[in-house]
Amino acid sequence: MENEAVLVAIDVGTSKVVALIGERTSDGSLNILGKGAPPSSGLKKGVVINIDQTVASIRAAVEQAERLSGYHLESAFVGIGGSHVESQNTKGAVAVSGPRKEVSHEDILRATEVARAVTIPSNREILHVLHRAFVVDGQEGVHDPLGMSAVRLEVETHIVHASATAVQNLSKCVHQAGVRIDECVAAPLAAAEAVLSDNEKELGVAVVDIGAGTTGLAIFLDGAPFHTAVLPIGGNNVTNDLAIGLKTSIQVAEDLKVRYGTADLAAVEPEELVTVETLGDGQARTVQRAEIASIIEARMRELFEKIGSEIAAAGHGGVLPAGIVLTGGASQLGGVAELGREALQMPVRVASPTGVGGLTDHLLNPAFSTAIGLLRWAARTIDQEDARPYPAASGSGAIGRLRDWLRGLFP
Fold this sequence. Notes:
Elements: E1 5-12, E2 17-24, E3 30-36, E4 43-44, E5 47-48, H1 51-69, E6 75-80, E7 86-95, H2 105-116, E8 124-136, E9 139-142, E10 152-163, H3 164-176, E11 180-186, H4 187-195, H5 198-203, E12 205-210, E13 215-221, E14 224-231, H6 235-246, H7 250-260, E15 273-277, E16 284-288, H8 289-313, E17 324-327, H9 336-344, E18 348-350, E19 357-358, H10 369-381, H11 397-409
Parallel strand pairs: 1-6, 3-19, 6-11, 12-17, 17-18
Antiparallel strand pairs: 1-2, 2-3, 4-5, 7-10, 8-9, 8-10, 12-13, 13-14, 15-16
Helix pairs in contact: 1-3, 1-11, 4-10, 6-7, 6-8, 8-9
């Protein structure tokens, strides 16, 4: 596979673990070669609470992806969520070195190190130090100062950090599953890679990734990340509300949410009835679908209020001309975009991941945005020349069997 790079992403979520193996070809396209998405256990609200169960879930996802692709997975870009993920913006300035007074890679690195030298508690671990913009001798809005003549270089960075113990526990699970970590990536930033356009990022936009246990938020201004956070509320909260309100089991409540759920109460006919199995005696009873919609609407409205508060607290006046882009599994509930527009008073749309080909069956929907975003992050991060070659797993998966057959014909 000359001039091709094999990349791997693992999204360890509350409801499922997704492992993707992708190939970036010489023309820049990204194709899915293998995927695994078994149910997840051992996590709560994006944080590991049981090592053994989490390891088993990751291992199952990896094995599924390996069987499909014919590759043996060695290392991966891993998404990390949980409400412990936080961010801040910092600045650093240095004098441009060298006799020619031209900005060099070393100058950019020194300025970045100054910006990075902020006081962060010892129980926090920095995940990302991302450049937002540069100021060259007072000239603002410079995106790439390399080679420019200057005396003073200033950089504004977006620093994302997380609980050190949460990162260590997730890393331990991935390693015990037999996978090395190339990079831990904040899940909201990964989701943004999959669903946001460069134009939206330039105008000002927020991606809201509504998962099962948490909701990730990433705000972009002037083409760069401005605020990253994770809220401890997600689709499971809706399910729990339904289970309590309708006096039924979690399993039945989840099924009702998927089959009949909507956040648009006005769209439900008052006479529409739904059969619900009562918790305990297992007897069936009928409830109005409007009751289900009312419970869902209340919880989703609360979520949007929290999102609005987070956007306002991030600063910059909370003005986002490109609005809100919803993604994640729970964003597929009917009426969510309409409720978001009403609650936040700004444009809201639901987005599926884009920019990949290959084995995309069932992947091009909002539930897989973070996983596909991780692959796109990897493709953007790793140069093809430096991409680690993955040994083929002999005879495993359709691609592996085809490759072995061809080798038999042409030894």
